[in-house]
Q: What sequence folds into this?
């Protein structure tokens, strides 16, 4: 991939030898994002959306690891949309990934994303409205605090986009689990899979990965805890599989 498309302050993260993503200037991704992209990985030929895509990491990770037929990357911040579009174009994925500059609260009215999708993912703001100290930068407030959209807004948008039986995947802090389940059910999404993430065996979980189904029957499967570190303090075998090619930037 040529580097001429990068703006000052940006650099490339190689997800494989075929796919890279531009990051920088306040738009990047974290281990949480990688985990959600892996947890929500679509099957070949599925149609998907990522709500609040930021720099576009999740759609590009999906394309590096699977073969979705179409992906809509939804983002409200123009600068992030521009960055994601440039990454999509430089990877030659314009026929698969469409970046939609749109507020999730107006997705249905705007027609930015079609209905009947198989998978919708969302890494929402972790800090509930009125809680915590707001970030100084506006882009950080939007990404980290529920200043524009609450979790229910994302859940309702996902429910409107998914086909019957379609999957909604999200990640949040464990302390928000009860409210998350309530919001999902209010939106018409039934929690089906839950996995907690810990840094090491003796640490409390710091993240939850949750999958809900549109129109699903009650019944939640709690899966084994995912550990980031092994007993020696290195990267666990499962996390090495999660990182896959991204860890080395090769196919």
A:
């Amino acid at each position: 991939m040529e580097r001429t498309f990068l703006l000052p302050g940006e650099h490339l993260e190689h997800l494989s030898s075929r796919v890279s993503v531009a990051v920088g200037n306040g738009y990047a991704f974290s281990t949480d994002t990688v985990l959600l992209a892996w947890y929500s990985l679509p099957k070949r030929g599925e149609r998907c959306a990522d709500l609040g895509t930021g720099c576009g990491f999740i759609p590009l990770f999906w394309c590096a690891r699977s073969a979705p037929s179409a992906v809509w990357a939804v983002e409200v911040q123009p600068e992030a949309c521009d960055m994601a579009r440039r990454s999509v174009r430089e990877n030659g994925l314009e026929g698969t990934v469409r970046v939609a500059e749109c507020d999730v609260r107006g997705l249905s009215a705007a027609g930015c994303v079609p209905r009947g999708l198989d998978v919708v993912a969302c890494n929402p703001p972790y800090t509930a409205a009125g809680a915590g100290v707001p970030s100084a930068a506006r882009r950080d407030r939007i990404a980290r605090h529920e200043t524009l959209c609450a979790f229910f807004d994302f859940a309702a948008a996902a429910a409107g986009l998914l086909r019957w039986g379609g999957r909604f995947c999200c990640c949040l802090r464990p302390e928000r689990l009860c409210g998350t389940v309530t919001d999902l059910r209010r939106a018409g999404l039934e929690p089906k899979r839950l996995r907690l993430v810990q840094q090491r065996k003796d640490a409390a979980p710091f993240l939850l990965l949750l999958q809900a189904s549109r129109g699903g029957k009650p019944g939640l499967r709690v899966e084994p805890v995912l550990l980031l570190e092994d007993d020696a303090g290195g990267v666990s075998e499962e996390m090495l599989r999660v990182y896959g090619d991204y860890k080395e930037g090769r196919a």
The radius of gyration is 17 Å.
